[in-house]
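REQUEST ID: PR-0412
SUBMITTED BY: lab tech R.K.
PRIORITY: routine
TASK: structure prediction, single protein chain
INPUT:
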Amino acid sequence: RLQTIDDRGVMYRKHHPELIKDWTANEDRIMLLRDVDGDYVVDKATVYADGFNELLMGTGAGLLYLDGDVYYTCIPDLWKLSDRDGDDVADVRENMQTGFGVRVALRGHDMHGLTRGSFGRLYWSIGDRGYNITTKEGVHLAEPGRGAVFRCWPDGSDMEVFSYGLRNPQELAFDDYGNLFTVDNNCDAGDRARLVYLHQGSDSGWRMNFQYLPDRGPWMSESWWDADNEAPPQFLNQPLANITAGPSGLAHYPGVGMGPEYDNSFFVADFRGGADYSGIVRFEVATDGAGFKFKSEEDFWWKVLATDVTFAPDGAMYISDWVRGWVGDGVGNIFRADFAGADIEGQQQSVEFLSNDISELRVDVLINLLSNKDQRVRSRAQFELVKRHAVPQLHAAAINTYTPTIARCHAMWALTSLSRIQERNNLPFICSTDDELEIRAQFLRCANEIHTDDMEGWFVKGLGDKSPRVQYFAALGLAHYQGHSEDLLALADTPDFFVRSALIEALAPQDAAGIGLVMDSNLDVPQRMLLVLAMRKTRSELLRHTLDDASPEIINEAVCAIYDRNVVGCKADVAVLDADHDKYSVAAVRRILACKNFIGSQKYAQQLFDYASDPMHPDALLSEVAVYLEKWDEPNGFDMVLNEWQEFPKRAVGATKGMKLDFSSAKSAGPQARGRQLFAENALIGCTRCHSMEGVTPAGFINPAGPDLSGVGSRYDKQQLEELITSPTAESAMPRDFDKKLNDAQLKDLVDFLFE
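STATUS: complete
OUTPUT:
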């Protein structure tokens, strides 16, 4: 229920005043490590910044060195730190933004992933501890229980949410062409972690409160996590693939340090709580229309409990090693690896350019470096050319069809930055008709950053391009202009999900008259669906007009949009729907029943009773309706679908008096059944974070993160099982405080379940 970081502070002081001293005794700090003599071993360590130990602070989890400054994410703040006197200690601290980390979630669901995008913005991520911030421009951004990706300029201006609905995206990585990816964590319910292409405005579906539902809500019951789900909800940014089990650090191969077979690869640290089954995974993606598809993965460097991975200036790989267990031993390692097949000359060039002052290099040399194999060299050359205001040379590089495509992209990105600085359009319009589709797409991507009046026609024209990627950026650009609903809806039947997503982004800010086209009977189903999804984004009460649509698909999506986005003014319109009608999906019926309970009238109490009296309905829905009826007079403030807090309107108290069901939602259970429930569903102890037992998880899937415990009762007696839980060893690798989260009866039930 917390809504702000101040609420969190009040909660701490009210409920745990005795722990305030402990919670502020330790600090987060930044260490600067130097290899002075060049032997690849650290021989100088300095505390660059410390003192991050206030009650609401931590964990500090993201660092980015940029132009002499260090950006640092440490909940609840984004910091900019500077060492002005050169003594390796920060002497200037600027709090760029506060308000991150509203709630208390699982350990590590913090703020991290700092990186720089194509145009110079900072990007970073936060786990599902959420945020409630007011930007420098006075814009209020609040999702207290959802993870997200943010971006802003290095001075903290124009901060915005880029992508949301994430659980714990530990790190972000851009590919060579400025496309953003993450590998987001699973919820320990038998689902798998997700490779996600983060496109603008995308919603990946997760909410923190799902974690505390026995079945994890629609995340599991409607398979929102599953990359192979053939019928995902239309709003969802479906993952490209389900890979890894404990994704942590993520890096894109910069182009030097390895053989050519590793070009375009990503590397992710897969942390599973034990070195025997953890390490670095390499994966690749391939372009697919406007977006991407999964290509391949392999275990690259195994049997190390890696938490992060990155690349040195010469392309060598660094990984950080947690050593052991979930809690850790308080010590760690950083390993460096060099690889056979690397271009030695290219490595030396990268070190020279990335490690030295480049302010005296000629502009023509910098232009040539835009074609360099190393992504970091190209990027540094690009931003140096921006500092030089080298518009004519960049313009010439961008339009030269004999120049490599990647260099032309960097030239356009630099011209876009200069357009912002100089407040004029520096983009070469000829690139909009280039034969190379990536150049046409990147031109519109750059134009979307400028969106001056003279660009509007180019966006409209781009909608007609044969390339879905060009269409995607054209649609995004039209979000800045009014009056283009019909142009956008003309593409509604595209089979490309990412183009549809951009169309929705552009339709959402259109005026009410444009969105009102949803009531136009001349629109086909794909067009009406786009408008429903656009209204979902804006939480528009116009959604009520779609509930009698001729298409069941439209109605089902609208019902879920109204409920999931909490469009309170439309819940009464959902409640009147007949939950027994076969045109409604199970997901829609679940929300219709919940709306009847929310409105709370005498009529709906009877309808819920009638529904619960029919044993032909799904067991899960019968159980939920039974709870609604049993708690009718004093309903649970947290709803059963999303686990979100709700304020009920005045209801018909006593309406269920005399209603008797043949079954109760509170079934009696023996010790093994109670133990099974603890193992599968209790988020506090989190058994299914690492283990499964013949598919015993909230979703019934095997958890790949750690050993399957099937048959453990044949190897240990009950006393031994209890000792393995309460006195962890290297053999069991259990968290040291596990038993403190259970009372004696619960511990006995869990042991009984494991044994039997």
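NOTES: Residues 5-243 form a domain with the Neuraminidase fold (CATH 2.120.10).
REVIEWED BY: pending
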